[in-house]
Amino acid sequence: MQVGTIKNITTFLVLFLTSLFIQAQTNKTDELGRKQGEWAKYKDGVKAYEGTFIDDYPVGVFTRYYPSGRLMSTSNFSQEGKKSQTEFYYDNRKHSFKAKGNYLHQKKDSIWLIYNEQGALVSEENYKEANAQGIWKLYNYLGVIAKETPYDKGKIEGVQKEYFENGQLQRLITFENDSINGLFEVYYESGQIRINGFFKNGLKDLEWIYYHPDGEIWFIEQYREGLILKRMDTEGHHFEMEKENDTIHLDIDPSVIDFK
Asked: Per residue in 13-28, pLDDT tens?
């Protein structure tokens, strides 16, 4: 057997036996089988978590680790383990923040902040009993708000707003029970209205007006539940469009929400 192999086996055995010894010294239960005092768990010789229990409830700070040994998260427990303030970290040498927020009864609750590996805030998420609730905010790479989405009991409800990099409103979409329903508007980066229309149950409905960048009306469309009835100019005459420009892509998919 090669020397390197022997060293590897020896190192593994030392780590394994050490972890068993530590667990034997710390991981205690009372006569009712409830966890008491300091606890630590190891996997393949690497600490997985450590913390303190009182009568089977986690109390104070619990720390969890990646298999690499780097810090994964810290949770500060209160209310007999029902509530915790938790911070997550990326598995990198920079020890970068990943997310922080609260858990209540082991479910996400109130505001959560999400960060990228460079430490920039990516999104603000609001929860109630693990369901999305309230306004969610998404930020672009400049740290400028890119999208605001209202939630009620896990579903999009109300007006979603999207923004250009300069902070100017780009698009306004009205949702009802997770479906696009109501006023829809698109703007030019200058702030000038570009498209104004309505949706009914996810389908174009009623009158849609399209504008030039200077604010002049380009053409008007009339719909009934997704079926186009008429396309006309400002004088009511039929308006023809080149085939390749016949569709203005609205790029809407309410099932794809990039906060989660």
From this structure: 444 545 454 555 579 9
